[in-house]
Design goal:
Blueprint (H helix, E strand, L loop, with lengths): L8 H29 L4 H13 L1 H12 L5 H22 L5 H5 L37 H27 L4 H17 L2 H5 L9 H9 L27 E2 L5 E2 L6 H4 L3 H22 L1 H8 L6 H31 L10 H15 L6 H25 L2 H10 L1 H27 L14 H28 L3
Antiparallel strand pairs: 1-2
């Protein structure tokens, strides 16, 4: 008995679209909430959460291989449906947006609010933070973050090794179950962050708590719903905005989306997203076809699995890189928008390598395009958080997803698929859906290269405009 609604392209596309739609809500709600709660630890949040999101499909694949392979696929889909529903409902129940007390006192700096910040003179280097100073960074969550980052790095290595070994080394049914059990254990191992997290006294009276502990009342906490341009320093009469890790002020955009849609800055961000995410879609969705076309006579499924795994590991590495370098950028008084041109630069270098390198060296361009994917996903959300008021971050982050929605239609449905199929028919390989030679993939990859050149120009223009203005 087949599926109740059949297996037509429309039905499959419908349910794939629904799952992707819900996945974007999961990602947006979790990442943006934690970036707001830990606003001075955003690099660490990206290292853990964005990397984990990138490896989600690898986790699920290992669970499928261990416990559901050989059984009707409906059993696996039922498990996924129940699992995501339970986790989603529970997460929505316990997750809360930061309050003035939790956001300022404990999660970031003790007794520290944006009211303490005076905008530095342009070009002035801030004095280094000294341990014990009233503005010193709160290390309350250091152990928690170190554990989370360490677990994330271990997971990246484990998933890469298991994915490769499963193709090169025989895994008995017991071995596969053991691998799946370790995968599940690693998922729940992240709960250790909850155990390590200190128990904070969350009250609404931050000044009272600080007086009891430090004998010095803390400044009143900033109301997150209060317009940032109403927070004015009494001495300089200057408006304040987003405060970075070292106290530099960046003006936050509070304009509605309907206004920002007419700005050049948002258009530039969209162009960059389309160019880079289009390459991500092209390579990740068609990796086996690209590899087969460029190494037709020596194509091996095991090697293809290695390339897929390397792309995923590289993507995770890119996210780790962005999260790791973000604190250094802030220590050098550089805005995270500096990261925006990195992904198109990597793609500009990587895409020609598909044709310039011998087939046996294809692992390098696959790795580089995966690295660019991780960099763009990690940096984009940080840039959005740094430029827009908390009430506006979600809608502006999601509007960039329209680039991700359009990219598969243009790059896959409109470009790669028709060209690959046409050359496959000409060569007489259409029955086995294969194609031989660079002619099969040259045009889509070169178009992608051109889009990344445009994306780099747009990213650099965006960087210059944002840094010159001090905000969006």
């Amino acid at each position: 008995m087949g599926p109740l609604l059949g297996t037509s392209v429309f039905v499959i596309s419908l349910f794939y679209g629904i799952s992707s739609f819900s996945a974007s809500y999961f990602e947006t709600a979790c990442v943006l909430t934690n970036l707001e709660a830990f606003s001075l630890h955003q690099g660490r949040i990206i290292m853990i959460q964005k990397t984990f999101l990138g490896l989600g499909s690898s986790f699920i694949s290992q669970i499928y291989i261990a416990f559901f392979q050989g059984y009707p696929i409906s059993n696996f889909f039922l498990f996924i449906g129940i699992f995501t529903t339970l986790i989603g409902v529970y997460g929505a129940h316990v997750t809360r947006l930061p309050t003035p007390s939790t956001r300022v006192d404990g999660l970031n700096r003790k007794g520290f609010t944006t009211r303490d910040i005076i905008e530095p003179t342009l070009g002035e280097k801030e004095k280094p933070l000294v341990e014990g100073d009233s503005h010193a960074l709160d290390t309350t969550f250091d152990a928690t973050f170190r554990y989370g980052i360490g677990t994330t790095i271990f997971v990246v290595i484990f998933i890469a090794l298991v994915s490769i070994l499963e193709e090169y080394v025989y895994f008995s049914p017991t071995g596969r179950v053991l691998s799946g059990a370790v995968t599940i254990f690693l998922v729940f191992a992240f709960a250790g962050m909850v155990v390590l997290a200190p128990k904070l006294n969350h009250t609404n009276d931050v000044a009272k708590d600080s007086a009891a502990v430090n004998a010095t009342p803390a400044p009143p906490p900033m109301d997150l719903h209060e317009p940032l341009n109403d927070v004015v320093d009494d001495h300089t009469n200057m408006y304040t905005g987003r405060v970075d890790r070292n106290g530099a002020v960046w003006f936050l955009n509070e304009s509605p989306l309907s206004v920002n849609l007419r700005t050049l800055n948002l258009a530039l961000m969209w162009v960059v997203s389309f160019g880079v995410w289009g390459t991500t879609t092209l390579i990740s969705s068609n990796s086996s076809q690209i590899y087969q076309a460029l190494d037709f006579d020596d194509y091996k499924s095991t090697t293809n699995v290695v390339y897929v795994s390397i792309f995923g590991v590289a993507s995770a590495s890119g996210r780790l890189f962005v999260g790791g370098i973000q604190p250094w950028l802030l220590s050098e008084r550089r805005h995270v928008v500096t990261l925006f041109p990195i992904a198109p630069i990597i793609n500009i270098v990587a895409l020609p390598l598909f044709f310039l390198l011998p087939p046996k060296a294809l692992i390098l361009p696959f790795f580089l395009t995966g690295l660019a994917t991780g960099c763009t996903w990690g940096s984009t959300v940080l840039i959005i958080k740094s430029l827009f008021h908390p009430k506006n971050t979600g809608v502006h982050y999601n509007v960039l997803y329209t680039a991700g929605m359009l990219a598969p239609l243009v790059m896959n449905l409109g470009l790669f698929g028709p060209i690959f199929d046409r050359q496959s028919k000409i060569q007489g390989h259409y029955k086995d859906h294969s194609c031989n030679g660079t002619v099969c993939v040259m045009i889509p990859l070169m178009v992608s290269l051109g889009l990344n050149v445009i994306a780099f120009i747009a990213a650099y223009a965006f960087y210059r405009r944002i840094t010159a203005k001090g905000g969006f």
